[in-house]
Every structure is written in C-alpha cells, then in structure tokens.
Design a protein that fits this description.
15 helices
Length: 302
C-alpha cells in the first residue's frame, strides 16, 4: 500500500503481479540454457568433422580402423604428416594454390569494383535487372562450363598453366563480388562523388581514392570469400593441372594413394585435409571482424 500526495491509497504489487514477476524471472535462465544447448549443437555439428580429421591425422594406423572406435590418439604420432610430405610435394601444392587464389582474387575484386561502382550510381529501375541477371548467372553450376572451358584451354595451350585456373576462377566469382561491393558502394553519400568530380578526379580515381578506402570492410569480405572459393575448387584444378609441379592442394589431395591399389591411406588423407584447411582458418580468424562488417554493411537500406 502506498499513499500518493493528495489522494487515496493505491495498491501496488498484488499476489498475481508478484507471481508473474517470479515466473518471468525463472524463465530467463531457462531461455539462456536452451540458447546455450542450441549453440553447443551447432558448434559440435560444425567443428566435429574438422576435429575428427585432426585426431585421425595423429593416430597410428592400427587405431584408425580399430573396433571399437578409438577416439583419442595414444600415443600421438606425426608419421602421417611426415609420410605425406616425403611422398608428395605437398609444399608445392600449397604454394600453387596460394599463387592461383591470390591472383584470381585480385583480378576478380578489381573488375567487380569497377562494375559495382557503376551499378551503385545507376537508377533503381536499371540497376535491379542487372543485379538479378548476375544472380541468375551465379546459379549455373560450373560443371556445365567444364567442356567448353577445357576446349578453350587446350586450344590456347594452357594445360598445366596457372592462367587456366586464374581466369575461370575470377569469372565464376565475379557475380558474388559485385553483389557484395555494390551494396557497400551504394551506402556511400552521393555528395562525395560530386565533390570529387568537381575536383577533377576521373571515375577510376574516384573508385581508387574514395570508394575502395571507405568500403574496405566489404572489399575484404569479397576478397576473402573469393579466395576461399579459389582455394577449395576441385573440378577445374583436377582437369587442367595434370603434373605434380602444377597441381593445387585439392587436386594434390586426390592424388594421395597408399602402398597398393587396395590400400586407403586414411591417416595421410586426414593430415592433408588438415594442412590444406589451416591457412583458411587462420585467414578467417584474422579478418573475422571485417567479414562480419562487410556482410552486414548493406543490410539496412536508408
């Protein structure tokens, strides 16, 4: 009971109100527990296969196929990594993948920035059909292009040449990069372009000195996504690169074999997968904030 000034006493906090408050208070921890369980399931679903591959790479051969399953390696062995490195030029595979993915990413993001800058300043009626057309093109599976690409690469004499992968990788990832960059460029104030135009800057100079620096999170996001695709691509790499000196890491993993035709080297395969995945994991961890910022930059339209 409380008595306000100049009025009758006012009832506050009846039994029902107190019961409702207590129920709400008890509901908050339950919701947090459910969210925690859901997060743990998603984390286990995502990290579980990678963790299992890492554990398999450290197990002796007898424990990999042992029944019942041996979950933790004892003792830990580096034999599979050493055997993989001695039998295959795995360092060359990693270097080839880094070289091809880097140049394909630079080429793709450069052309995507030019296209995105033009689309960002177009009227809505002209821009939307072009963006939808890019999205439609990105839906085509790359395997449909395998035969014509192979004929073109063979005619140019680019079998076992890095350009056989760099140019297709850049072209296949162009729609995704344009979508990411166009959304970021569209958020930039139009007054910046007008002021730069009055100062005498050309279109290329405006992109290089204004658009790219201000939209750097989106540029980093597009570059990392393109780089990951180029690093993981398998079909074109296996088709166009036939020698060990030119193979990328995905094609190199496919060539790992056992001592005989009927032996599957699970330990070496697991070690190869872990070694091929580590550079991408480190790349994503280093640029995590830029990736999130770039993906959410165009989420809210003004």
């Amino acid at each position: 009971m409380t008595a306000p000034r100049g009025g009758a006493p006012r009832r506050t906090g009846g039994p029902r109100d107190r019961a409702g408050t207590a129920t709400a208070g008890r509901g908050v921890p339950a919701a947090r527990v459910l969210w925690g369980l859901a997060l743990a399931l998603v984390l286990a679903w995502s990290v579980g296969p990678a963790a299992w591959q890492a554990l398999t790479a450290l197990k002796p051969d007898a424990q990999i196929t042992h029944v019942p399953t041996v979950y933790l390696p004892h003792p830990v062995t580096w034999k599979h990594v050493e055997t993989l490195w001695s039998r295959k030029p795995f360092g060359t595979y990693l270097a080839n993948s880094a070289w091809v993915a880097t140049w394909a990413t630079l080429l793709c993001v450069s052309f995507a920035a030019l296209a995105a800058a033009g689309l960002a300043r177009m009227p809505g009626r002209g821009r939307e059909p072009l963006l939808l057309g890019l999205l439609f093109l990105s839906l085509f599976p790359p395997i449909l292009l395998l035969f014509p690409l192979y004929e073109g690469v063979r005619w140019l004499g680019w079998i076992n040449h890095p350009l056989a992968l760099i140019l297709p990788y850049a072209a296949l990832n162009l729609p995704l990069a344009v979508w990411v960059l166009e959304s970021a460029f569209r958020q930039l104030p139009l007054e910046l372009d007008e002021a730069a135009r009055l100062d005498g800057l050309s279109a290329l100079a405006r992109i290089r000195r204004i658009h790219l620096p201000l939209a750097m999170p989106a540029v980093a996001t597009a570059a990392i996504l393109v780089f990951i695709f180029c690093w993981n691509e398998f079909m074109l790499a296996l088709t166009f690169m036939t020698t060990d000196a030119r193979k990328t890491v995905t094609a190199g993993i496919a060539s790992v074999s056992g001592a005989s035709l009927y032996e599957i080297p699970w330990g070496q395969l697991s070690a190869a997968i872990v070694l091929a995945t580590l550079p991408l994991v480190l790349l994503v961890l280093v640029f995590e904030r830029r990736i999130v910022s770039g993906l959410t930059r165009g989420a809210i339209k003004g």
